[in-house]
Amino acid sequence: MILALCGQKGGAGKTTAAVAIAVEMAARGRRVLLVDLDPQGSLRTWGDVAAEAKAEHTPTVVALGAGVHRHLPPLTDAYDATVIDCPPAQGELQRAAMMLADVALLPCGPAALDVWAAAASADLVKEAMASKAELRAAVLITRKIPGTVLGARARGAIELLGLPVLGAELGQRVTYQEAPAAGLGPTTYELERLGGLVAPSKARKGAR
After folding, report:
1. Domain 2-206, CATH
2. How many helices (H) and strands (E) in the chain?
3. I need a surface site. Which of 100, 107, 119, 122 has the fewest CB within 10 A?
4. Domain ranges of the chain
5. Which portions of the chain are predicted below pLDDT 50?
6. What is the DSSP letter of 60?
7. Which of 12, 154, 26 lies closest to 81 in space, CA to CA?
8. Burial level of 75, CB count in 10 A (0-12/13-18/19+)?
9. H-state helical runs in 6-101
10. Full-model pTM
């Protein structure tokens, strides 16, 4: 399975979601390839930190760019899942990633500015779906603050993008900022921080 985290807006949570998903799948026993298409190289840096920390459940991290449509397919056969972190504002790389993917996931924050910026990305996803009938796509709500009017209204506004919206949401939690510095995913970070005293199922629920 190949999952592409896409979107032309920076700061929407693509890299955060890519790490969270890849580490969780690795923790569940899957062989996971994490692909960094962003020239900023945030995932590569995270991978170096994880390797230095000898963190468990670390997926294999590779950096690719132009030519990803040629270079990635030979790599994916050795893995159960591949997670691609697309760069912002580079339409050709995103199109190439979506043409390779089984699922395109579009992270979007809850604010009106986030939704407006995501509209162009949603159009790009729909174009890819028109070219590749088997491509599935959905929006992932990120940085949601529970108990706020903005958070309560987020889903209705994001549904206007015309793509399915996942029931799972990523909240505005410090864990998502702290975990990468430790070379971990948010769930594994919470488990380590709590000394393993919390059952994994409860930790996963709290890390949403």
Report:
1. 3.40.50.300
2. 10, 7
3. 119
4. 2-206
5. 197-208
6. E
7. 26
8. middle
9. 14-27, 42-52, 68-71, 73-76, 91-100
10. 0.86
